[in-house]
């Protein structure tokens, strides 16, 4: 699956950005290209992935497994496959519409926009993170505010500030992106510019023919010992996906 899928879960890809940094408008354009590259690397034109999720709290842990499919920038389906008590729970994102299916109730529910920033399956990721919602690209302005080097790559720090009147939750977002489009970190600030949570890439691995953030962890600020980790174990990108996958019918009665 915003903000950052489950940012993350669910899994989602790309190519490297062509960078030619200059002052003013050119710099802003390159900052946007970096963020776009990170989203493309996560999702690609289409994707299919298997992801395990660990929800950690002081005193207990919960482990889940899910399969995810994405297509373009506005379609995503995530279905839990384990443990048995959670299997069948699914979330479908179609543009600005988010539907969830609870097999125990055999009911599909449309989530109001006000709930998209809420916890997804009790984790530290939100419904927006699940589909890697692109609000940061469309509702924010972007600027490169720093750079460094790690693992043989240049790493750029991109600051994203809301456009005037933008209907967004965060007062600011800040992302660290490698020069090949791999997202290394995303930090979320409230309207008072205080850090609310941070997602870090704990491992970059080769999967689906690309370098990819295969292990990411979301940690809320000021909640010691609380985090949620997503581990991508399998992934394929730029593959044909049948149209029926992203339908309400398949959400409730899966054909895969």
Describe it for me?
The N terminus is likely disordered. This protein is mainly beta. The protein has a domain of 157 residues: outer membrane lipoprotein receptor (LolB), chain A, CATH 2.50.20. It contains four helices and 13 strands. A 13-stranded antiparallel beta sheet has the order 6-5-4-3-2-1-13-12-11-10-9-8-7.
Q: What is the assigned CATH homologous superfamily of one domain?
A: Lipoprotein localisation LolA/LolB/LppX
Helix content: 10-25%
SSE order = HEEEEEEHHEEEEEEEH
Secondary-structure class: mainly beta
Which strand order does the major sheet show?
6-5-4-3-2-1-13-12-11-10-9-8-7
Q: What is the makeup of the main sheet?
A: 13 strands, antiparallel
List the uncertain runs.
1-28
Distance between the termini: 19 Å
Q: Give the overall shape.
A: globular
- Helices, by number, come to 4
Reported by name, the CATH topology of one domain is outer membrane lipoprotein receptor (LolB), chain A
For the record, the CATH architecture of one domain stands as Clam
Average pLDDT across residues? 87
Cα Rg: 17 Å
Topology:
Layout: H1 25-43, E1 46-57, E2 60-71, E3 75-82, E4 90-94, E5 97-102, E6 107-111, H2 127-130, H3 135-138, E7 140-150, E8 153-162, E9 172-178, E10 183-189, E11 195-207, E12 210-220, E13 227-237, H4 248-252
Antiparallel strand pairs: 1-2, 1-13, 2-3, 3-4, 4-5, 5-6, 7-8, 8-9, 9-10, 10-11, 11-12, 12-13
Signal peptide: 1-25
Keywords: Lipoprotein, Signal
Protein name: Outer membrane lipoprotein-sorting protein
């Amino acid at each position: 699956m915003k903000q950052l899928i489950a940012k993350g879960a669910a899994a989602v890809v790309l190519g490297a950005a062509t960078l030619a940094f200059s002052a003013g408008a050119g710099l802003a354009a390159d900052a946007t290209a970096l963020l776009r590259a990170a989203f493309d690397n996560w999702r690609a034109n289409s994707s299919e992935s298997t992801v395990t999720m660990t929800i950690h709290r002081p005193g207990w842990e919960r482990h889940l497994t899910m399969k995810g499919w994405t297509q373009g920038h506005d379609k995503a389906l995530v279905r839990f496959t384990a443990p048995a008590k959670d299997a069948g729970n699914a979330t479908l994102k179609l543009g600005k519409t988010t539907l969830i299916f609870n097999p125990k109730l055999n009911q599909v529910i449309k989530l109001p926009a006000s709930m998209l920033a809420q916890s997804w399956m009790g984790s530290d990721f939100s419904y927006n993170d699940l589909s890697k919602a692109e609000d940061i690209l469309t509702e924010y302005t972007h600027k490169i505010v720093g750079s460094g080097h790690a693992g043989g790559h240049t790493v750029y720090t991109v600051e994203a500030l809301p456009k005037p009147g933008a209907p967004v939750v965060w007062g600011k977002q800040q992302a660290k992106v490698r020069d090949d489009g791999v997202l290394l970190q995303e930090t979320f600030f409230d309207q008072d510019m205080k850090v609310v949570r941070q997602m870090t890439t704990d491992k970059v691995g080769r999967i689906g023919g690309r370098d990819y953030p295969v292990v990411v962890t979301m940690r809320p600020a000021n909640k010691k010992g609380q985090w949620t980790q997503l581990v991508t174990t399998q992934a394929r990108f730029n593959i044909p996906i049948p149209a029926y996958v992203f339908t309400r019918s398949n959400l409730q009665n899966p054909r895969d």
